[in-house]
Amino acid sequence: xxxxxxIVVEHGPMVRRVCRALLGPVDTDDAWSETFLxxxxxxxxxxxxxxxxxxxxxxxxxxxxxQIRARARGPEPAADLSDRPPDGAPGPEPADTELHGALAxxxxxQRGAVVYRYLADLPYAEVGALLExxxxxxxxxxxxxxxRLRRHYEKEPR
Amino acid sequence: xxxxxxxxxxLDDLTADDEAACARLRARLAEQxxxxxxxxLSYRTTDSPIGPLLLAATPAGLVRxxxxxxxxxxxxxxxxxxxxxxxxxxxxGVDDVARQLDEYFAGHRRIFEVPVDLQLSKGFxxxxxxxxxxIPYGATESYTVVxxxxxxxxxxxxxGSACATNPIPLVVPCxxxxxRDGTYGQYRGGPEAKHALLTMEAAR
Lengths: 158, 204
Prior knowledge:
The structure holds 2 protein chains of 2 kinds. Chain A is mainly α. Chain A has one domain: PhyR, sigma-like (SL) domain (Butyryl-CoA Dehydrogenase, subunit A, domain 3, Up-down Bundle). Helix content of chain A is 68%, strand content 0%. Chain A has 7 helices and no strands. Chain A has helices at residues 4-23, 25-42, 52-72, 98-104, 108-119, 124-131, 135-155. In chain A, helix 1 (4-23) packs antiparallel against helix 2 and helix 1 runs antiparallel to helix 5 (108-119). The radius of gyration of chain A is 16 Å and the shape is globular. Chain B is an alpha/beta fold. Chain B has 2 domains: 38-119, Methylated DNA-protein cysteine methyltransferase domain (Double Stranded RNA Binding Domain), CATH 3.30.160; 123-203, Orthogonal Bundle (Arc Repressor Mutant, subunit A), CATH 1.10.10. In chain B, 43% of the residues lie in helices and 13% in strands. In chain B, strand 1 (41-46) and strand 2 (53-58) form a beta hairpin. The chains are: A mainly alpha, B alpha/beta. Chain A binds chain B through residues 1-5, 8-9, 12-13, 16-17, 21, 29, 32-33, 36-37, 40-41, 43-44, 97, 99-100, 103, 118-119, 142-143, 146, 149-150, 153-154, 158, and chain B through 1, 4, 6-7, 9-11, 13-15, 17-18, 21-22, 25-26, 28-29, 32-33, 36, 38, 41, 43, 76-77, 79-81, 84-89.
């Protein structure tokens, strides 16, 4: 089995991008740390030959959902993880870039599909499994998400 | 999906990484893991006059010192299977060792004061290592004397292999064991390293 340090060095930056894109800058570090602590705890039991990238992204996904629910339990109404536009639900933290702001404004499933497909490099079948939708729906959500980000970029060129 | 230049720009922006942030997160992870009892092995490397050394520690103490010729990556992989894959680069239990090794090579230290974990050696080999810790700086002993002190005067060959496979060289000073004819015998760090250490200790 690979020493865990190698896993952190290899996948740490990817998990950080995923956490940042899902949660915004304020909660990124905590989500990253919780993901890797949980992974370290479970690591000796990981089956040989497992897909480490997918395993880590799955843990990060659950940590992000926990964070979003915890935020929603605050003064805000219940978290909305559905396809509907956010209407202020899964409250995006103040974003540190225009692009992250645009990403935070996407419905969760579009945001998740863009992040898991393009930042985590997962196949659509795994993206769908994480977002509890079909492979085709995952593909559609990613395309719709990217299209919205594209509009944002073309409106406000950097 | 066909990527437009804008899409590429979007993805480039989202994948811009902050090296410093990742390094800070890794350091914090090691601290949290240690606090939560999940850091089974910590390690670092340190430079020395006989080449870069890998230092690895369990919560009980220093468990492995490895020379460059042993291949540090291979040694970490061995530790992952022999002890635990919960391994992180961390100062825990190894920064003190690195500092004391610096002092040793500078001629300012004769005794190492760090906890050691001898779990990688069992039985007679372990008895040999425990005896080696009593051989003082600058002195040498023959394999015969070592075998006798470890409780089995006839186990010459076993005493030799215990020294040759000592997991904690330098701190457990197997380099102080030499053949009766004065030649050096095997050393994990190579004969040149053993020669350099004995010459250094004899000069002071």
